[in-house]
Design brief:
mainly beta
Length: 92
């Protein structure tokens, strides 16, 4: 089960909210029903001092969800800036 928050004002945008990345510790490991539990959250309470409250909720099923496949190569700063990859550098 995946837990997400949503904003009712941008629910029809193409902003990515669900993704599955290949890794040694996959989130989805079994062929089974998969659901997403969504909450619409707002800041409430006295003077809106970070009191988050739930306005509505949805339970979605992913069995008929159409997805796009995006092959992506990525790295992090620690690997990218290793000395053997630096061709030149300087100060301005």
């Amino acid at each position: 089960m995946e837990c997400k928050t949503f904003n009712i004002e941008n629910i029809e945008t193409t902003q990515r909210l669900f993704y599955l990345s290949l890794s040694e510790n996959l989130k989805v490991t079994k062929d089974a029903h998969h659901f997403v539990l969504c909450f619409e959250i707002y800041v409430g309470g006295r003077r809106r001092k970070n009191k988050y409250k739930c306005k509505s909720w949805k339970i979605l099923t992913l069995e008929n969800l159409e997805v796009d496949v995006k092959y992506e190569f990525n790295s992090d700063n620690a690997r990218m800036y290793t000395p053997n990859l630096i061709l030149a550098e300087g100060k301005i």
